[in-house]
Amino acid sequence: MQTVTLGDRGPSVSALGMGTWAWGDTLFWAYGKSFGESEVAAAFQASLAAGITFFDTAEIYGFGESERLLGQFCQQTQQPVQIATKYFPLPWRWNRVAIVDALTASLDRLRMSRICLYQIHWPLEFLLKTQDFMEVLAAEVKKGRIQAVGVSNYGAKQMTLAHEYLAAKGIPLATNQVPYSLLTRQIESNGILDQARQLGVTILAYSPLAQGLLTGKYTPETAPSLQGARRLDPRFSPQGLKKLAPLISALQQIGEKYDKTPAQVALNWLIAQGNVIPIPGAKNANQAKQNAGALGWLLSPEEVESLGTIV
């Protein structure tokens, strides 16, 4: 199985993860309407069968339902599963005990005494500051309730500051979870990717398929029938999808060479960057199997460069 180490001294996890924002989320993803518990349970099992054992969730996903579902599914398998979850720095969480209590609540929902990775979901500072977050989580590593510490949506300077506070406690910063895909390349120009490499921080790439744009299933002809948030996203408009056509064509051509789908090629492009773990979502077993097709092979350096220059 392909694995990646989280940070310098963190645990090794599968080179492709699974994002579970949609699991239990009725507001944005309409959980309970077009898909439900049986579908995401099948996605979980299909992922394990394909060698994907790293799952990312958060206390805010479905207001805890994503964690509850993951905990339930993990109880039903003998296969080792590695879980990452996140703490949301809400303004009324005004002391360090709130961080400890939130971790305890997440562990209870996950039915676990220890998890692979605990992350600060956003770099929001009210009464609690980055130093508070990092010092509390460093103590939790030493207690054994978490194996590694990560951040999410942190800029280069914020990530460096978190790294410094943890280093003072003898703990490395393991990860920064940020949007990254062939169509979302800001971390390459704003210093996040370079600084992560210098600090030994692994990038967890969320929205690695750009909300489905890189699957190739959306076309200018189907744009008028789109529902939900995609109707409001200009990238999904007929004009936006026309601009995307050269990239989709290139993904299809390379995919034919490897017998892979455009989505699998797009995910493999991220894996090929090195020290990057894509965490695409999946609402059912078929989507999970499709994601897993990004593993077990690798684009050539020339193909990686070619895809990057198209965008």
Detailed description of the structure:
This protein is α/β, with parallel strands linked by helices and 311 residues long. The chain has one domain: NADP-dependent oxidoreductase domain (TIM Barrel, Alpha-Beta Barrel), CATH 3.20.20.100. The protein is built from eleven helices and ten strands. The strands form two sheets. An eight-stranded parallel beta sheet has the order 3-4-5-6-7-8-9-10. Strand 7, helix 5 and strand 8 form a beta-alpha-beta unit. The two termini are 31 Å apart. The model has no long low-confidence stretch (mean pLDDT 95).
What is the strand arrangement across the widest sheet? Answer: 3-4-5-6-7-8-9-10
Class by SSE composition: alpha/beta
CATH class: Alpha Beta
Reading the helices and strands in chain order gives: EEEHEHEHEHEHEHHEHHEHH
CATH architecture: Alpha-Beta Barrel
CATH superfamily: NADP-dependent oxidoreductase domain
Report Rg. Answer: 19 Å
Overall shape: globular
Mean of all residue-level pLDDT scores: 95
Estimated helix fraction: 40-55%
Beta fraction of the residues?
5-15%
Distance between the termini: 31 Å
Domain tally: 1
The helix count comes to: 11
Domain NADP-dependent oxidoreductase: 16-307
Protein name: 2,5-didehydrogluconate reductase
Keywords: Oxidoreductase
GO molecular function, one term: oxidoreductase activity
